[in-house]
């Protein structure tokens, strides 16, 4: 629609937004200002059905909790149009006199409310929940599903929240080529009344807590410590946890039930009949006894002491060093990475004074390099991520000596590297290339001068296909490796969305699961499934010998002003069912970007080279 059609009685003032097949305008009428939305059906045959839907919605939208459809129709070009009540402006008060200021108009949505006013109290959120749940009830009783309930589609009109954006509204169970917005849709899809309730619950969760729906059901300390927590706070949390429960059978059955539950929050009621009270009391006693029995195991077993050894990181874009590239006899960490086509940067970092020496080498066959200090010969080995050629490299003379190569499949950029003390071979796991990722595993056989495939891509009982995020972590024997997080998908395809999985980054999923690989038996074991950590914040992980535990570092969360301090988690192998957050002291970093990290073999401190500085972290058992 290059030129908007003219609608009698409406003057289009300004384009507010547009996307494929839709445009939204501010319009002026004799009565004042309104919004006009144009929609082009994907199939012309659906036009008559959508006109009937809009006529029904026009009547339904006269109820409270709706953005009212003032008028609707069809243009000669085949576009549907709706004239809608104009939402409140940001940051003006609800009653507007737009006049000449229409060019500054921005609609106030539920998503924008908290950024302007801060997190609302629990009672206010519950009152909004009553209003919006009742509106959904009106919609559902007419046999219609909204399909896209989220903060950006809830508008404030005269200071009250209202459902908006009716583009995807349709009959329950009707086939539609739309899966919903990640995090606001339940795992079973968006074609059911329950999906609307789920989306409302996640929207109110974000508004109340200030956290992303992908972090549900976690609560910030400010919410838990607020004076309202023992009143409306805990009651509201119960309602939101139930309406957003991953199991559909545990959720509210209707919008009326949800509205009644929010009303109970406002009235400070917890509706429990006698039978449910007895069950709850018995469960409470059982939980209390269990808590006493396992209290020792749940006490914080360690603390983290940070100290900054350099205020700023060296901030070299091409750096690719990791724990496997450290020669502790020389206190040097190495990196090899492509600068331009046919040009490689070989860099060495002195871990005593953190001076960096960079040398450029032109070699056409090297593009995306990985390197490792061979544990037995102490030579620096380098291999190319695409064609798999393996060389030794002398950092002093820049001499490369070809050892062999393959496989030539261009799918091992960013592969995870390891040393196998049983076979005495360097190995790689996973990696990406050609818009896909893999979970195949290879080791380089120096005698045969080629890579040997030990695990095929897509093998059963193995981790999802993925590329590197956190390096593989060995236990002291080196015969067991741990895999923490990464970027990938079960099929390996880039851009594939998987229902119910958080942290999708537009290319591959961001994962936070933890796996264990026994190099003697080739057996994988999942020791922590998805959903216990924040996948987008994982930065580093290592093994702690005294605690027989994995230490996992998360970056600080970004806010509008700055980043929060990093967090450290501990997972004791064979003991903990989920990670334990450790208390921290000292100069705590933010770890927004971690370039590399390693463990000092003498002090056992973890050396982390990050964008905000270089730090040492001591894990001290308590």
Task: Characterise this structure.
There is one protein chain. Among the domains are: 1-107, Transferase(Phosphotransferase) domain 1 (Transferase(Phosphotransferase), domain 1); 131-271, Transferase(Phosphotransferase) domain 1 (Transferase(Phosphotransferase), domain 1), CATH 1.10.510; 406-530, Kelch-type beta propeller (Neuraminidase), CATH 2.120.10.80. It is built from 8 helices and 37 strands. The chain is elongated and about 85 Å long. A 5-stranded antiparallel sheet has the order 1-2-3-5-4, with helices on one face. It has 622 residues and is an alpha+beta fold.
Question: What key phrases describe this protein's structure?
Answer:
single chain, 622 residues, alpha+beta, Transferase(Phosphotransferase), domain 1, Neuraminidase, 5-stranded antiparallel beta sheet, 8 helices, 37 strands, 18% helix, 32% strand
Mean pLDDT, all residues? 85
CA-atom Rg in angstroms: 29 Å
Going by CATH, the homologous superfamily of the domain at 131-271 would be Transferase(Phosphotransferase) domain 1
How far the N terminus sits from the C terminus, by CA atoms, comes to: 67 Å
- The number of helical elements comes to 8
Strand order of the largest sheet: 1-2-3-5-4
Structural class: alpha+beta
CATH architecture identity of the domain at 131-271: Orthogonal Bundle
Give the overall shape: elongated
- Helical fraction equals 10-25%
